[in-house]
Design a protein that fits this description.
Rna Polymerase Sigma Factor, Chain: A; 2 domains; 8 helices; mainly alpha; disordered C terminus
Length: 183
């Protein structure tokens, strides 16, 4: 992220803020959607995040930590939104382009659906830690900072979330995991 752009936004430059918001919106939505598991809820959380970015950016102490700061904001609003909403009963398969599945794709789609259903069972607090650590690749210390919890609590939540995911999908089920790392 361009630190000078952040500094200009901190001084009230609307154009700089607009550029930051445009550059951040898709990554913020990806995080919110993975935590909330609902498109409308994720859009609401991102909207609240963008408003908070504008109102709180003058108080950001370290412009170089802008990205981490925005993760903290989106997690805060995503967790609040997830707690407000009732959990969805139907889990859709994302990224399908409407073409029929090939026979060799059926196992991959079934595994993805199984993992999505297992992920849906996690509490929003556990989903947030898993998303930040495994999807974004943040180290546990940054996860704790983004969620606003102690390091040990972040580690505990991650441990129990992964344990719950493994129990839900079954230890013997071989799920393809992006990047080859276990969930």
């Amino acid at each position: 992220m361009d630190v000078e752009l952040v500094r200009r936004a901190q001084r009230g430059d609307q154009g700089a803020y607009d550029a930051l918001a445009r550059a951040s919106a898709s990554r913020l939505f990806a995080v919110a959607h993975r935590i909330i598991r609902d498109t409308d809820g994720a859009e609401d959380a991102v909207q609240q995040t963008l408003v908070a970015m504008w109102t709180e950016i003058p108080r950001l102490r370290d412009p170089e930590r802008f990205e981490a700061w925005t993760y903290r904001l989106v997690v805060r609003f995503s967790l609040a939104e997830a707690r407000r909403r009732t959990p969805a009963r139907i889990v859709g398969l994302d990224n399908l382009d409407g073409e029929p599945a090939h026979p060799d794709d059926s196992a991959r789609l079934a595994a993805r659906d199984l993992l999505a259903r297992a992920f849906e069972r996690l509490s929003p607090d556990h989903r947030a830690v898993v998303v930040l650590h495994h999807y974004l690749g943040l180290p546990l210390g940054e996860v704790a900072d983004a969620v606003g919890i102690p390091y040990g609590t972040a580690g505990s939540r991650l441990h129990y979330a992964v344990r719950e995911l493994r129990a839900a999908i079954g230890e013997d089920d071989a799920l393809p995991v992006p990047g080859g790392q276990p969930a």
